[in-house]
């Protein structure tokens, strides 16, 4: 088995991390977890479900930005 060239390893690792982040947020924004936050509670006047979706989306943007930025 030939070793993978060193130039491809960081790109492959970045792709794997982006795939993991997309799968993670697919799970976080799927029905079972959304149902946990779907109740009449409010935080600062904002429904808990809306706050959860907003914070999950912000985390997705932040993590994706950190992964794709050049070093």
Please tally the helical runs, counting DSSP H or I stretches of 4 or more residues: 3
Tell me, what's the shape? elongated
Helix content: 55-70%
**How far apart, in Å, are the first and last alpha carbons?**
30 Å
Mean pLDDT value? 89
Low-confidence stretches: none
Biggest sheet layout: 2 strands, antiparallel
The structure class reads mainly alpha
When the domains are counted, the total is 1
Percentage of residues in strands: 5-15%
Rg of Cα set: 17 Å
Beta strands, count: 2
Biggest sheet: strand arrangement: 1-2
Elements, N to C (H/E): HHEEH
Transmembrane segments: 18-37, 49-68
Keywords: Membrane, Transmembrane, Transmembrane helix
